[in-house]
Amino acid sequence: MRVGKKRYIDETIEVTAERGLENVTVRRIAGKAGVSEAALYRHFAGKEDLVNESFLTIDREISQLFLNSFYSNSYSGGEFEDVLKAVWKEVFAFLLKEKSKTLFMIRYRFSSLFTDDVRDKRMVCGEEFTPVCRTLAEKLGGTEDYYRTYAISYIFEVTILFSEKILLGRLPYSPELEDSLWNFIINIIRTFSEDTLTAKA
Fold first, then answer.
1. What are the residue ranges spanned by the domains of the chain?
2. What does the alpha-carbon distance between residue 80 and residue 86 come to, in Å, rounded to a whole number?
3. Is the separation of the CB atoms in 1 and 34 below 8 Å?
4. Rounded CA gap, 71 and 145, in Å?
5. Rounded Cα gap, residues 171 and 186, in angstroms
6. Measured between alpha carbons, how far is 23 from 128 in angstroms, rounded to an integer?
7. 149-170: per-residue pLDDT in tens?
8. Phi-psi bin for 171: left (phi > 0), alpha (psi -120 to 50), beta?
9. Which of 83, 114, 147, 201 is placed for a possible disulfide with 136 were both Cys, Cβ 3.0 to 4.6 Å?
10. Which fold does the domain 48-200 belong to in CATH?
């Protein structure tokens, strides 16, 4: 049976979500995929490579959702912060729906595997986000670099943290909670963008 990279990544995400990163092994993932360890090694150098690629795969999925929603909502003609909120709500809904991916992101993000090298490979750090960062700087203040290196990652990480709490039953979901979370995020971004401009002046 031929198994592709996606199957290994899917199994890695599931094992991490259910049992933690410490229980991810090449043997376990290969077993769950129904292949030999040698077959898995044709695609990945080892556990670290497999787990890192799993993280980057989810990161690309969330980032692409953000971009697609940003561009589609930008044509709505609404106020910019309402557009940004609509984009964020789509990301939040995705995280609440995709429990395994959300739990994987949390467990990976706070592990020793999340290095500067992996961080620099995130889609948000790439050219795809340049127009978005430029627009955010124009509309909300601050600099493009501020949004590229801090603000967008902050949006993702805070949203993932709260999604985990809801998914694990530590925080009850409500529309009011969603609105409060968005207001918290946008206020922090405004504050730091103002500080960035002040420091630059």
1. 48-200
2. 10
3. yes
4. 20
5. 21
6. 34
7. 888 888 999 999 999 999 999 9
8. beta
9. 147
10. Tetracycline Repressor; domain 2 (1.10.357)
- Contacts within 8 Å (CB) and 24+ apart, 62-70: 62/91, 62/94, 62/95, 62/156, 63/122, 63/123, 63/124, 63/128, 63/129, 64/123, 65/90, 65/91, 65/94, 66/90, 66/91, 66/132, 66/152, 66/156, 67/128, 67/129, 67/132, 70/132
Contact 87, 66 (CB under 8 A): yes
What tokens were used for 58?
Answer: 């989810």
Handedness of CA 64, 66, 69, 73 (dihedral sign): negative
pLDDT digits (tens, 9 = 90+) for 79-134: 888 999 999 999 999 999 999 999 999 999 999 999 999 998 998 888 899 999 99
**pTM to 2 decimal places:** 0.91
Asked if residues 3 and 41 have their Cβ atoms less than 8 Å apart, the reply is no
What are the Cα distances from residue 17, in Å, to 21, 42, 44?
Answer: 8, 24, 20
What percent of the chain stands above pLDDT 90? 73
